[in-house]
Fold 2'-5' RNA ligase family protein.
Amino acid sequence: MHSIELLPDEATERVVRRVWRAIADEGLPSQAGHRHPTNRPHLTLATADVLPAATRGALAEALDALPLPLHLTGLLRFSGRSNVLAWAVRPDAALLTLHEKVWRILREADGDGRSHPLLAPGRWVPHITLGRGRGAVWAGPDDRWLPPGAAASGRWTEARTYDSTSRTTARIGPDVR
């Protein structure tokens, strides 16, 4: 499975990593504990089984829209096989347009197979994962871990693909860091 991910500017990445560390310092599941070299704050736009060269080219063209504004708001909690604590991303019109464009490119690609239905336009809940774990619970108000005011702003500056089979990433689209 391949995911298409947006990456934040360096200052926003540092803020998210501080939150990861604050959660880990309390002994709770945090992305700070995920030691794989590809682990970094990101926003998943869509997934696909395969990414043919033509699809990569179309995605790179769509991602020329970067940089885009980034707005983080409060905490989200998802439950399922693994529970997830996340920092909500408030999508503006530009981000929603990019998301829909990326989704459409992947849906129209040869061999796409199965895109994750929760990432479909209208169902997508944009967020940056802060922690995940089976049965994990992160009790308390947002300001327990988030900066005062629980909001942060920055920019989505670059994009990458993540291949879950090889556990590798590749830059796609502009690099404006």
Notes: The chain has one domain: 2-175. The radius of gyration is 16 Å. The mean pLDDT is 90. Residues 10-25 form the longest helix (16 residues).
